[in-house]
Amino acid sequence: MKLCLKPFIYAGMVLVLFSCNGIVDNSTVDNSTVDDRTMGQDPLPSWNEGKAKSAIINFVDEVTDPKSSNFVEVADRIATFDNDGNLWSEQPMYYQLIFAIDRVKQLAAEHPDWKTQQPFQAVLENDIPALLSSGHKGLLDLVMATHAGITAEEFDKIVKEWLSGSNHPRFHQPFNKLIYQPMLELLTYLRANDFKTFIVSGGGVDFMRTWVTEAYGIPPDQVVGSSIKTAFDYNDGNPVIRRLPEIDFIDDKEGKPVGIHKFIGKRPVFASGNSDGDLQMMQYTAAGSGKRFMLYLHHTDSVREWAYDRESYIGKLDKGLDEAAEKGWTVIDMKNDWKVIYPFQLTVPN
Amino acid sequence: MKLCLKPFIYAGMVLVLFSCNGIVDNSTVDNSTVDDRTMGQDPLPSWNEGKAKSAIINFVDEVTDPKSSNFVEVADRIATFDNDGNLWSEQPMYYQLIFAIDRVKQLAAEHPDWKTQQPFQAVLENDIPALLSSGHKGLLDLVMATHAGITAEEFDKIVKEWLSGSNHPRFHQPFNKLIYQPMLELLTYLRANDFKTFIVSGGGVDFMRTWVTEAYGIPPDQVVGSSIKTAFDYNDGNPVIRRLPEIDFIDDKEGKPVGIHKFIGKRPVFASGNSDGDLQMMQYTAAGSGKRFMLYLHHTDSVREWAYDRESYIGKLDKGLDEAAEKGWTVIDMKNDWKVIYPFQLTVPN
């Protein structure tokens, strides 16, 4: 795959079709033995000792201590996590977009008109300038053709099948194996301390719901994401939900606090993200009364994962990095704070 | 209060401002001792033995038995409950509408123009023909003037204050005390069997979220309801969610399965409602694979609560009653199946 595109901006969401960063086709693994894991004491064994790890543990200790003035009731222990680039990787491009492209190719035989119709022709021919010139409308057409027009249950099945057969170009693993081991530990640690963990992502909610329970232990009703409209169809007594070719909600930037309010109904006390798309979620979380924790993941590891921030088309982290420094939010330095990236790289599997 | 209105139909939702049923101003209480409660064995002590109770218990026994062919995995144990007329009473009119009317009266001093502007003038003067003639637009104006234009946190505070000072005209209790003791036991019983219990109601989601956790043990993120749009406001560094005067979603009739899909992301295995507004939720639940349970509450108790069904402006149960009979769904006969209606009537408090 040799495509290289400029980003599409749609409804406040930056979507990059093909990254120009250059794929380091190098499955370098961390061979640390993660000694702490075997001790059964450390709640975050894949995290190196340091500011980020200490800050997380100190926060959890404090808000769960009934004697602390910063104690947070169990009902208020809401933790929200961005997904792309925060719980799983997002390079060389969002995996949901790879799904859309793969699905266009799969469906092409049923749509002979796509051979001469943009943006499909561009996808089928890997014709970048043509794909670019299809603009926002092109991206929307791509999403609708690949995500709508079927029932919810059909879509779920299609995503599951695609994912199980998928193969990341660098790591040669299905995309849902490219989840971050240290973040899995963080989710488990928070839940063990009676936090309710939610995903709040710009990704499609129904795309995520097919696999996040197995990956992260987060049930479908705790996933907030972007969505298309749906409709109830009585379907001759066998009712189904039909997916309609119309945007319902974009859960990105200002949309994230709106989505949190709409789906969760409480202001989080813990928010975790990796891009400027998460900044409003961070600001909203920080502005609540009492102790709050804002956590940015900074992609600094060009060897084991990817290094990108202020100039990246995907997962751009620029204003967020400045505001984190200014406000004293915790920033994970992936290269130095994490002993291992992915679960399949563990030498002592969990 | 002597108002008597015809229903407004708005976006598929029947809203009755003032019922013509005639309020039986008679706080008749059930003085049953609820003997079973003291035995500590019966999971539904406020339910008389009978078809409804047996059907519920048999269903739960079956789907939680790993040896049964109808076993349902814990992750799939999704139970959805309508609220108005199903978990709490809805007569003589929806309590959220009483909130809106009370709020108009409370805000009237700040809005001198309301004295000559419909539908506010009608509410302030109890002028029924004028209120009626304001139609759908009038109801919408009423909702927007009382539910929008403030922050989410302000609205939450306003509802809480209103509720604590509210007084039901017949039972002389705050409205949130008019919850059904047998349904509380059912919610507890299902949760004890690892069901996740959700509210799926035509009522306003943020109105419900202020009090349902205390009333039913259901957290805010497990409440699906109708909503107005909201927006993120950075608010000079103190971000808030602002409530906008525009309908976002109506969670009624066909909207209920859509809301279930949107917020829960799974088809329920257990659905409970009391009106034709719940019929599509029942149909959607029934059409899933494996064992399912559909439960209608039939208001048959004109002495202890209210008796209404096919002809009622509020909570009309007509098509649902026919379909329940035809499909063999369970119907609660309130008069005969329930030993007691409200928790405050228990002679041996739980």
Account of the 3D structure:
The structure is a homodimer of 350-residue chains. Chain A is of the alpha/beta class and 350 residues long. Helices cover 33% and strands 17% of the residues of chain A. Chain A is globular, with a radius of gyration of 20 Å. Chains A and B meet through helix 8, strand 5, strand 6, helix 10 and helix 11 of A and helix 8, strand 5, strand 6, helix 10 and helix 11 of B.
Labels describing this entry:
10 strands; 17% strand; alpha/beta; 13 helices; 33% helix
What is this structure, in a nutshell?
Chain A is α/β, with parallel strands linked by helices. Chain A is built from 13 helices and ten strands.
The general outline of chain A is: globular
Number of DSSP-assigned strands of chain A: 10
| Rg from Cα of chain A | 20 Å
Mean pLDDT of chain A, to the nearest integer, reads: 89
* Topology order of chain A in helix (H) and strand (E) letters: EEHEHHHHHHEHHEEHEHEEHEH
Largest interface: A-B, 40 and 40 residues
Structural class of chain A: alpha/beta
Percent in strands of chain A: 15-25%
Total of helices of chain A: 13
Low-pLDDT windows of residues of chain A: 1-39
Assembly status: homodimer
How far the N terminus sits from the C terminus of chain A, by CA atoms, comes to 34 Å
Helix content of chain A: 25-40%
Largest sheet of chain A: 8 strands, mixed
